[in-house]
Amino acid sequence: MSALRFSSRLNPMLSNRILSQTNLLFTLSSFSSSFKKTSKHLYCTSNSTLHNNGGTSLSLSSNSPLSGLEDELVGYIFGKKKATEVAHLVWRHVLRKGDMVIDATCGNGCDTLAMLKMVADESGFGRVYGMDIQTEAIENTSSLLDQAVTPKEKELVKLFPICHSRMNEVVPENTAVRLVAFNLGYLPGGDKSIITISRTTLLALEAAKKMLISGGLISLVVYVGHPGGREELETVEVFASGLSVDGWICCKFQMLNRPLAPVLVFIFKR
Ligand SMILES: C[S@@+](CC[C@H](N)C(=O)[O-])C[C@H]1O[C@@H](n2cnc3c(N)ncnc32)[C@H](O)[C@@H]1O
Question: Which residue ranges form the domains of the chain, and what is each CATH number?
Answer without folding.
Answer: 82-269 (3.40.50.150)
